[in-house]
Design a protein that fits this description.
Layout: H1 2-17, H2 49-54, H3 58-66, H4 78-86, H5 95-100, E1 117-120, E2 127-131, E3 136-142, E4 145-150, E5 157-161
């Protein structure tokens, strides 16, 4: 009888509260707004807790980008996009700040490995994408949207840093 009552209570909570069993233990998701997130101050971009928690490997970070192929939601928000793709704890105000930071060793030669952060000096804020490991990158601003391109698609290549969820 106890099991039936527990099941009924859980069903009612799910039906009327919109909750799930897992959400009771899931912490609140917080995303700090940085200068890299303010390309358009009126824009509101939200990701579900599942999206934010999903990417922790190079393959998952690339999948985050590829599942948004063609989306314009992150135009002007490249640093935020790579941070969300990797579910990073560390926040940088811009791609150029990320490049200049002590957050990972800078490499200026060689093909960036799968999942690496790839940087270009194309504006005061720079630009960053995620390497596919074969000389291509996933990034915002590929034909005006999230897309896949050769590393040379953007001018003024700076180099790469290992991708991570730090």
């Amino acid at each position: 009888m106890r099991t039936i009552c527990q099941a009924a209570a859980l069903s009612a909570a799910l039906l009327f509260g919109g909750a799930t069993v897992a959400s009771a233990a899931t912490p609140e998701v917080y995303s700090e707004v940085t200068a890299a997130d303010i390309a358009e101050p009126g824009a509101v971009i939200t990701d579900s807790a599942a999206d934010l928690a999903a990417a922790r490997t190079a393959s998952q970070a690339i999948a985050w980008f590829s599942s948004r192929n063609g989306s314009t939601a992150y135009q002007g928000y490249c640093e935020r996009a790579v941070r969300l793709a990797w579910d990073r704890v560390t926040h940088h105000a811009s791609a150029i700040e990320h490049w200049r930071s002590s957050d990972g060793a800078r490499h200026t030669t060689g093909t960036p490995p799968r999942g690496a952060f790839v940087f270009w000096n194309i504006s005061a804020y720079g630009h960053v994408g995620i390497a596919d490991g074969s000389g291509g990158v996933w990034a915002t601003s590929v034909n005006g949207a999230i897309g896949h391109a050769r590393q040379g698609y953007f001018a003024n290549y700076l180099g790469w840093k290992p991708g991570n969820s730090n």
